[in-house]
Every structure is written in C-alpha cells, then in structure tokens.
Design goal:
Blueprint (H helix, E strand, L loop, with lengths): L6 E3 L14 H14 L1 E5 L2 E5 L2 E2 L4 E5 L3 E5 L24 E6 L2 E7 L2 E3 L19 E6 L2 E6 L2 E3 L6 E4 L2 E6 L2 E4 L8 E4 L2 E6 L2 E4 L4 E5 L5 E7 L2 E4 L2 E9 L3 E11 L18 E7 L4 E13 L3 E7 L16 E15 L4 E4 L6 E13 L9 E4 L5 E7 L32 E21 L6 E20 L2 E4 L2
Parallel strand pairs: 1-2, 2-5, 3-6, 4-7, 5-8, 6-9, 7-10, 8-11, 9-12, 10-13, 11-14, 12-15, 13-16, 14-17, 15-18, 16-19, 17-20, 18-21, 19-22, 20-23, 21-23, 22-24, 23-25, 24-26, 25-27, 26-28, 27-29, 28-32, 29-32, 32-33
Antiparallel strand pairs: 30-31, 33-34
C-alpha cells in the first residue's frame, strides 16, 4: 500500500514483524511498489525475518528505532546471484542478505538494526569462500548510495561489500561482527567518490577495508571521525589490489582493541594484527594515500606497507603488471602498546616503494619478550595461524636483516616473513625516497633490536628522530 507521499509501511503490505513469520515476500513487494515512482519503505518497531532482499532504484529502506531486519536461517532463501562483473573474488559467495545491481539513488537509513544472523549454525563454516555464507549488504555497480545511522551485527560473511559503486556515502553507522570467519566490517571495493564518516566498527576480521578486486580502482575517498577495532587490520588497503587505489585521505580516527571476548579469527591476535595496512600485491597502482591524526592502541604491527607480486589472475581481469606503491604520507599518528612485530615498508627485488613521508609519528612498542612472539603454522591458503612454532629469525645476530626472507608472492601481513624483524621501529627494504620527520620510537630497556633497518634504500632523510629505551632518550642519526 503506497501513500500519496511515497511511503510504504511493510506492516501494511503484509509483513508480520514478529520474528517468526517469513516476511521476505511482503518486504520485497513493498520495495517493488516503491520503485515504480520512488519512495521509502518503513519498518516500524519489530523483528522482520526474511531472506534475500533486492533493493531497487529510488528506494530508501528506513528502519525505525526498535526495528530489526533478521536473516532467516534457511540457505534456500539466499539464491546464488550470477556475478556479472569480472572480479578476483569470483569464488566468494555471490549471495547476500540485501543486494542491488546497477541501481541508482538507493539508501538504508534509520536507527534500527540489520542482523544477517551469521552466528546461526546454518551459516557457520571454516575460513574461506564458502558458497553458503551470504554477504550482509552487497551493492554492485550502483550510483548515489547512502547508508546512514543504522546498526549492523553478525553477518555470515563480510558485513558490507560495495563493489564498483560511485558516489557512496556511509555515515554514522555502527558495526559489531564477531559471529563467523571473514567478518569484515566494511569493504569498499573499486568504488569512486566515497565518504565514510562518524562510524564505529568492531569486527573479527578487517574493520575498514579498501579493495580493488576488479578492473576499476578505488579512488577519491575521504574517511574521517571513525572508531575502529579488529582482530585483523583496523584500516586496510588491499589485499585484493588489481584495479589499484588513488587519492585516499583517512583522518581523525581512533583504533583500539575489540571489546569482543572471543577471538573469532585464526591468527588469534586479541588486540589486532595491524593498525595501518597497505598491501599492493596484484599489480595495481597504489598512489597518493594520506593518513593523518590517528590514535592506535595495542596492535601487533603498527604500520605495514608491502609491494609484492602475488598477481592474482581471473577471467576478465586485465593482465597484472608490476604494480606500484608510492606517494604515501602518514602524519600525526600516535601508537601505544604495539608489538612485537615492528613496522615495515618493503618492496621486492627490482620493484621499490617510492616517496614515503612519516611525519610527527610516535610508536611505543610495549611487547617484545619471547613469550610475546606469535606462533606460526602454514595454511594451504597461504595465511599463517597459531600453530607449530614460535616465529624465529636471527634478529639479534643479523642487525641488517639479511636473513629476513623476501617472500614477494606471500599474503601481505606483518607475520609474512615468519621472522621477528631485527628492528623495533621500522624495517625498510627496497624503497626510494623516504623521509622520517619528528619521529619518536620507544621500547623497553630489554629489547636488543635496533630502531631502524634499511636495506636497498635510496635517499632516506631523518630529521628530529628520537629513540627511547626504558628511560633513556637519544636522538638517532
């Protein structure tokens, strides 16, 4: 039933809102009706149990305070959706709780909650690309998208994926996702003109993640005023990086340990693996990236940049080239209680990271003892997880890092070298033009590692760099 003002209340269209009845048909009917002339689908307080919903152009889903969209635990209600856009993520689940393809002017707003019900046994699975675990929200090649005010909890797979969308606005949302493996909080994949602001995300996998699994770059992005927690990476660019990244500005954010008691991630990093994580390994161009005014607490690796040559291939995807990682500025960043894996900025033989500025950055490494060193065990996927042995390395007898393996094709993350790095500050290898300006590195007195290791580095500048071991402060030259 559509009013003259363009509003549809799903209760008037036959939805029960009692959390028991299957409301899929009634809700879809309301969406289809609104799409004829444009309008808003209203969810009054109640619990609406449903399967896949297909959002259409010029329609807003508005969840009133006290309203919940709840994923119905019946996998037959989540049809497989043929992927029509080339992507290196084709093996992932092309199912979704809320889905849109090539729609325009679509929105999800309100103070209500979307729960895809990912904790239910119907959706539980091991890590990997299970065909039966739907995305929470999956919008593909849509334009003029707004998601504002809502709460999202416990998806079966990634909570949100926006793939090759344009003019995307995500503001004031809250995400808590600790129900399953691969519970990324927010994935922006190959999108253009994006604003993410005033969001709070706490997830078992990457919290705020930018990717480019297809041929389009992720570009013209502004992120500000967000609070982020993760058992993986808090802010990540990569790993999927075919299309590349450019003109991304991330500022005024807080990264802190998750409040979740259970660590639903194979690497078991309670306080998070990485704070700022950049991985260009599939041939794309990662350029003109700026981080500023960031507070980071507790992560295992504070800053990680990797140019690699994994070069993932897929049907319809352009042939990967060497890729780039250049013109990155990290400024006004304070990192506390990090470690034991130091920050690293590494290319690979013949391919260098270029033009990096680290300015007004302080890092306090609070963990460095042998008992703090992570354990590793190789998975068939190429990831490491808690397993057979402690990370080793000859870091005490190899201050230049010559024994640290290159591993250019490895999955990019702080533990990828299977070795504690010989620096407690920055491990820098295969880099051209890097500046450290007003940088403070602090570690405990018993940490015998050196503050910096530079290998195959051309043009490194240091200004006002201070090192503190215990209570002893000195300028590093």
């Amino acid at each position: 039933m559509t009013s003259k003002t363009g509003y549809v209340n799903v209760l008037e269209d036959g939805a029960a809102g009692d959390g028991i009845a299957n409301d899929t048909g009634a809700i879809q009917k309301a969406i289809d009706t609104c799409s004829l002339k444009g309008g808003t689908v209203i969810f009054s307080p109640g619990t609406y149990s449903c399967g896949t919903l297909f959002l259409k152009s010029n329609v807003t889903l508005h969840l009133s305070k006290g309203a919940m969209l709840l994923g119905r635990p019946d996998t037959s209600l989540y049809p497989h959706i043929a992927h029509k856009v080339p992507s290196t993520l084709d093996k992932a689940p092309w199912r979704a709780f809320i889905y849109a393809f090539e729609q325009e002017n679509i929105s999800i707003t309100g103070e209500g909650t979307i729960s895809p019900n990912g904790a239910h046994e119907a959706f539980q699975d091991h890590i990997g690309d299970s065909p039966d675990r739907p995305f929470g929200i999956h919008f593909v090649r849509c334009k003029k998208v707004t998601v504002e005010g809502i709460s999202l909890i416990n998806s079966a797979f990634w909570v949100q994926r926006y793939f090759e969308c344009e003019d995307l606005r995500i503001r004031g949302i809250s995400v808590f996702a600790h129900a399953n493996y691969n519970n990324d909080g927010l994935d922006i994949d190959g999108c253009k003109r994006v604003v993410v602001a005033d969001c709070k995300i706490d997830s078992s996998d990457d919290a705020l993640c930018f990717k480019s699994h297809g041929n389009r770059p992720c570009e013209e992005v502004v992120v500000t005023n967000c609070i982020l927690s993760s058992h993986a990476s808090a802010i990540k660019l990569g790993t999927g990086s075919v299309g590349g990244f450019s003109k991304i500005n991330i500022s005024n954010c807080i990264i802190k340990p998750s409040i979740a008691e259970k660590v639903h991630h194979p690497l078991k990093a309670k306080n998070g693996l990485m704070g700022i994580d950049l991985g260009s390994v599939d041939g794309g161009r990662m350029e003109d990236i700026c981080f500023s005014n960031i507070l980071i607490e507790g992560v295992e690796t504070p800053i990680f940049m990797k140019l690699g040559n994994r070069h993932t291939k897929a049907k319809g995807i352009k042939e990967p080239s060497a890729g780039t990682l250049k013109r990155v500025t990290i400024s006004d960043v304070s990192i506390n209680d990090a470690g034991p894996v130091s920050a690293s900025i590494t290319g690979y033989t013949g391919c260098c990271i270029e033009d990096i500025v680290i300015k007004n950055v302080s890092i306090r490494m609070g963990r460095h003892r042998p008992e703090d060193i992570p354990q590793i065990g190789l998975l068939s996927s190429g990831l490491n997880q808690t397993g057979d042995k402690l990370m080793g390395g000859n870091y005490l007898n190899d201050p230049e890092g010559k024994t640290v393996p290159e591993n250019p094709a490895g999955y990019p993350f702080g533990r990828m070298y299977d070795s504690i790095l010989p620096s407690f500050g920055f491990f820098v290898r295969h880099v051209k033009n890097i500046v450290f300006d007003n940088v403070k590195l602090e570690t405990e007195k018993g940490d015998k590692r050196v503050p910096f290791v530079l290998s195959d580095v051309v043009n490194a500048g240091f200004s006002k760099v201070f090192v503190k071991r215990g209570s002893e402060m000195s300028e590093w030259r």
